[in-house]
Here is the input.
Amino acid sequence: MIEIALYQPDIAPNAATIARLCACFDLKLTIIEPAGFAWTDSSFRRAGMDYLQHVQLHRSASWETFKVEKRSQRIILLSTKAAQSHVDFKFVKGDILMLGRESAGVPEEIHNSLPNRVRVPMAKNMRSLNVAITAGIVSAEALRQLGGF
Here is the structure.
């Protein structure tokens, strides 16, 4: 129905938590390499627990490879810099929810190249939510809109 993509994730437990979310919501997960951790990282396995075996996981070698592989799908960037709230956005089947690196988001040229960007509204003066929490909030809204529950 929808997919989640992680752009060069830095933190193994966050990626594994999102993988667990994908397993529980039956969503595909793509990791856009390079990741900032080894796939054998014990913290990745610990956070993902036995859910990792249920994830439809794909690894794209690079941003360029990912764009070619997903050229027929709409990519929605989840960004604190976006003007539109996720609840005001109209999701469609096949959308890819993309999250940037925990330490730096996505490069400015990628951010600017994606016309569909949404943010999760937060209290004044707060910088950002954890990427796994953001993935959960936005994927739940997309699934709600699309009748995916």
Notes: Residues 19 and 55 are 6 Å apart (CA to CA). The mean pLDDT is 92. Strands lie at 3-7, 28-32, 56-60, 75-78, 84-85, 96-99, 117-119. The helical segments are 12-25, 42-48, 63-69, 108-113, 131-146.
